[in-house]
Specification:
Length: 264
């Protein structure tokens, strides 16, 4: 199934839904975190009484979400006011909480305060010939669904001195227009920046993730998204990674920060 087919599952319209994660969307023994987070946010969006855009999402990956075993998606509206709605969604499998997400949605309002972002990505134009090929058994299974044109940083486990990573990203099968759910999932498709510094294959996992959206996102199905990430600090097995996500015309779309545990 494609990302859009999974994310548009009719069951996600309920406040409590049951799903099963397909094996080809996993990374190792657990589900691809970007898709898990997107499922949580889609369930939130269905609970909105009126259109409100996604401002931010905070995600904690509590435990592994296994493929082939049913899990429950349940959303609670924490508060819905005149301008903002905040919700919490849990993914629970076999009685264990696997993921907790808190989403903040808001209505645009008139304001005299406007601060423009004049930054531009340092990426080169998309090079489709350089998209990383999927290698079964070597790469995570979900990687067969994404196209990454890596332009910055080094390969995982290459013992590199750099801690930055960047390039362009999109889903290989993308028919619907791209929205914030696609951005959310694709931003998690890149390996942690720390892995390129490891000298041998080492497991790593995202523990917490916070992402903010600067505006509503409605892009062509053929669009690419730019990604530039760097680890600002790492010590005692935990790293803090910041990332910027760009539209193909160079506009900043989202800001991301995550805490990554590496077991080297």
């Amino acid at each position: 199934m494609t990302f859009d087919e999974l994310i548009h599952s009719p069951c996600l319209k309920k406040k409590e839904a049951q799903m099963t994660f397909p094996a080809n969307w996993c990374q190792g023994r657990t589900a691809f975190g970007g898709l898990s987070a997107a499922i949580a946010v889609q369930n939130m969006k269905h609970q909105l009484d009126e259109p409100r855009r996604l401002l931010s999402v905070s995600v904690n990956f509590v435990g592994p979400l296994l493929e082939g075993t049913p899990f429950t998606v349940s959303t609670t509206i924490l508060r819905s006011g005149k301008n903002a709605t905040q919700m919490q969604t849990q993914l629970v499998q076999s009685g264990q909480v696997c993921l907790i997400a808190i989403g903040c949605f808001g209505k645009d309002r008139e304001s005299a305060i406007a601060v423009s972002n004049n930054e531009r990505p340092s990426l080169q134009e998309v090079n489709t010939a350089a998209v990383l090929p999927y290698q079964e058994g070597v790469m995570p299974a979900f990687f067969q669904h994404v196209a990454l044109d890596a332009q910055q940083g080094a390969l995982p486990f290459s013992g590199a001195a750099s801690s930055n990573l960047g390039g362009w990203m999109r889903f290989k099968q993308q028919n619907a227009n791209m929205n914030e759910l696609h951005v959310l999932a694709l931003a998690d498709a890149w390996p942690p920046t720390l892995l390129q510094m490891c000298k041998a294959p080492s497991p790593a996992s995202s523990m917490s993730w916070y992402i903010e959206f600067l505006s509503d996102i409605d892009l062509s199905s053929q669009s690419w998204l730019g990604f530039e990430a760097i680890t600002h600090h790492s010590n005692n097995g935990y790293g803090i990674e910041d990332a910027k996500i760009w539209t193909q015309d160079g506009k900043l779309a989202a800001l991301s920060r995550q805490t990554v545990a590496v077991f080297d």
